[in-house]
């Protein structure tokens, strides 16, 4: 029983320490992580595991290692912001794989990317014909940035001399049937206005609303609740 309790407490301690360390290190989206960030993450996970599994003597060492790694990562992030030379040394530079419509073969070899890999990455960017691509750059996070040739780009409203109004960011107004009063007040609109808009969409009370949001143009988006309505396999998911 003591062993089980100790394992539980160690797991909680490791979890809290990891939460604290990641909080100190700051936020970064998974899609923006470089290979270096990935390696640091794996190392931190391994050290955290040591905290949960090793004896008391080794546990102290593991905690010191955890915070040392976190400190070095924070320092690296600071130097990454302040020094371009350091940034190049750690993350290298983006590689141009296609320039002015021509494949840069030396950079393909340098990045260890085959033609099949390149065409696959292009398809992810909706470039199904390599002849449509003007420039393509392999970023530090492994993502491919693609610039299509002028004649292959989608037509924009400005090119058609159209000027649609900007909608801006949306504010959540209702979540799972609960009205977010502060957000509604920030839009200078009243509950009466909201209820009237909901009635126009055939909704008589907030309990029927799963999600509602309002953009800066005053357009209200409403998604009704579907509790108990979905049947097995109805939406292609068993």
Automatic annotation (TrEMBL):
Keywords: Cell membrane, Membrane, Transmembrane, Transmembrane helix. The lineage of its organism: Bacteria, Bacillati, Bacillota, Clostridia, Eubacteriales. The chain crosses the membrane at residues 7-26, 59-81. This is YetF C-terminal domain-containing protein. It is found in: Cell membrane. Residues 82-214 form the YetF C-terminal domain. Belongs to the UPF0702 family. It comes from Caproicibacter fermentans. GO terms for cellular component: plasma membrane. It is a multi-pass membrane protein.
């Amino acid at each position: 029983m003591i062993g089980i309790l100790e394992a539980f407490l160690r797991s909680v301690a490791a979890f809290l320490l990891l939460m604290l360390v990641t909080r100190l290190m700051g936020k970064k989206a998974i899609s923006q992580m470089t290979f270096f960030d990935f390696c640091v993450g794996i190392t931190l996970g391994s050290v955290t595991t040591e905290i949960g599994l090793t004896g008391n003597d080794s546990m102290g060492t593991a905690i010191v290692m955890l915070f040392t790694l976190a400190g070095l990562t924070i320092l690296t992030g600071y130097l990454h912001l302040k020094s371009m030379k350091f940034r190049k040394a750690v993350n290298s530079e983006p590689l141009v794989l296609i320039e002015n419509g021509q494949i840069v073969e030396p950079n393909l070899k340098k990045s260890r990317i085959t033609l099949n890999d390149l065409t696959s990455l292009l398809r992810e960017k909706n470039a199904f014909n390599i002849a449509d691509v003007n420039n393509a750059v392999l970023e530090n996070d492994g993502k491919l940035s693609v610039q299509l040739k002028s004649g292959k780009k989608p037509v924009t409203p400005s090119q058609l001399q159209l000027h649609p109004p900007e909608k801006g960011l949306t504010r959540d107004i209702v979540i799972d049937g609960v009205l977010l009063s502060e957000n509604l007040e920030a839009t200078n609109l009243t509950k009466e206005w909201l209820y009237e808009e909901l009635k126009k969409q055939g909704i008589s009370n907030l309990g029927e609303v799963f999600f509602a949001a309002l953009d800066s143009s005053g357009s209200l988006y409403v998604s009704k609740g579907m509790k108990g309505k979905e049947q097995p396999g109805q939406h292609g998911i068993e």
